Amino acid sequence: MTQGKGTLYVVATPIGNLEDISLRALDVLRRVAAIAAEDTRHTRKLLSRHEIHTPLESCHAHSSRQRLARLVQRLEEGDDLALVTDAGTPAVSDPGGELIAMALERGLPVAAVPGPSAALAALVVSGLPTHPFAFLGFAPPKGGRRKRFFETYAHLPMTRILYEAPGRLLRTLRDILDHWGDRRIAVARELTKIHEEVFRGTVREALDHFECGVRGEISLVVEGAPEPASEREEGAWLEELEQLLLAEGFRLKSAVGRVCERYQVRRKEVYQAALQILKAHEEPMAETEEGSEHHGKGK
To answer: Residue 114 in contact with residue 89, Cβ under 8 Å?
Structure first.
């Protein structure tokens, strides 16, 4: 403890059920000088439930550096403060991390009061390997950054956890299918609430299940990328892909889908290989036709 300085307590709060809060968290929230909250109206409901009357300070993604500096100044003057988010653990895909960083830069003590986390709750009920895992937060909403996001984490050989808004769920599932393949997935919705749901299956099955839309807070837990195929395995799926593509009446999409499902290879990789195969077979045909044309002109 730094002499004469206040402590910033990073306090986890419920992700849905208001009973999911620790006795220590309640004690800290009662005795600190103020609570820095992502949404003061939301946090006030939790405080009212437990008859806590500690003053609230706003601390969200749009808070100015000056506002955060004032909170740090209070810590330097000896006030203990608590940092909370709307739900779960502060600084996990949450703007509270900036206040924590500023406090640490000034040499101020920061203490964790652990508790609920939507990411960990989804992970432990997913049925997928719980270690190692990577928490990826929210995917960028659009553009090149979104494409790079899915490409960057496509080969991670570990369970991947994402958050997503209900309006973007189907798009994100399609992007996962295109870049990561038809992996096993758990879609956890409204955890700890009345309408809690955990869907477990493949990405393709999840697309069918949620095709009519969805509501609520969502966590996605996705199976890690498969181990790189050996040369023999790669040769097998490439050979089958070529046979399917050259079979009469077999379409590109169907051939790619069959190989992806059978060999658990990423759709994007199979699709690019398919295009190369088709191009390789088209070029000799074009050369043959061109040769026949010249031969005809020579008659």
So the answer is: yes
Residue 234 structure tokens: 């790669």
**278 falls in which pLDDT band (50, 70, 90)?**
confident
The CATH code of domain 119-222 reads 3.30.950.10
CATH fold, domain 8-116, is Cobalt-precorrin-4 Transmethylase; domain 1 (3.40.1010)
For helices 267-297 and 252-263, the axis angle rounded to 10 degrees is 140
Q: Is the peptide bond before 132 cis (omega within 30 degrees of 0)?
A: yes
CA of 2: how far to CAs of 5, 29, 30, 100, 114, in Å?
Answer: 6, 21, 22, 16, 22
In this structure, of 11-25, 39-53, 230-244, the range with the lowest mean pLDDT score is 230-244
Give 207's contacts (C-beta < 8 A, 6+ positions apart).
170, 173, 174, 177
Whole-model pTM over 0.90: no
For 199, counting Cβ atoms within 10 Å of its Cβ (0-12 exposed, 13-18 middle, 19+ buried), the class is middle
Query: Can you say how many angstroms the Cα of residue 273 is from the centroid of all Cα atoms in its chain?
Result: 28
